[in-house]
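Archive maintenance. Older records in this collection stored only the sequence; we are now back-filling the structure field for every entry so that each record is complete. The fields below show one back-filled record exactly as it appears after the update. Entries are processed alphabetically, and HNH endonuclease is next in the queue.

ARCHIVE ENTRY
Title: HNH endonuclease
Organism field: Hellea balneolensis
Length field: 160
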Amino acid sequence: MGTVAAKLLPDNPVKALQTSGHIRDGAYPCLVLNADYQPLSYFPLSLWSWQDAIKAVFLERVNVVDHYDQFVHGASAKMRVPSVIALREYVAQNRAPAFTRFNLFLRDGFACAYCGSDKDLTFDHVKPRRLGGKTNWENIVAACTACNFKKGGRTPKGAH
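Back-filled structure field:
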């Protein structure tokens, strides 16, 4: 369970629930949206187990947006297993996305910034490291191997 789930849900489990069929571990994951209906995170995608989702529903911490056809049964209640829930209170997202190769390619649409190719992608320092360029979101772009090699240790302007 993620840190947001740990803060929203106390340790006491939802008791006396039975399902209308066997549910294996990891089945019926539930997408968790913030109060603005945006995922809490994209990579990894914010997912809770169906048990945590139902617990949050009973604690009135979330609204059910959509559900599976699968039911769970309690002593006095029957409900469908949630597939998408939205938090009732907004959780501030004050962190930048992780700087990873995948996230960089995702930002750049899996295409070379110089020619648009989607083949043999690497990442390129727009301002080369030898000229003091940093490895950060502002200075790195996706580049195919051919364009990266052609540009070399120069700025894009100096390469043409």
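Update note: Residues 130 and 153 are 7 Å apart (CA to CA). The chain has two domains: 3-87, 101-152.
Entry marked complete.
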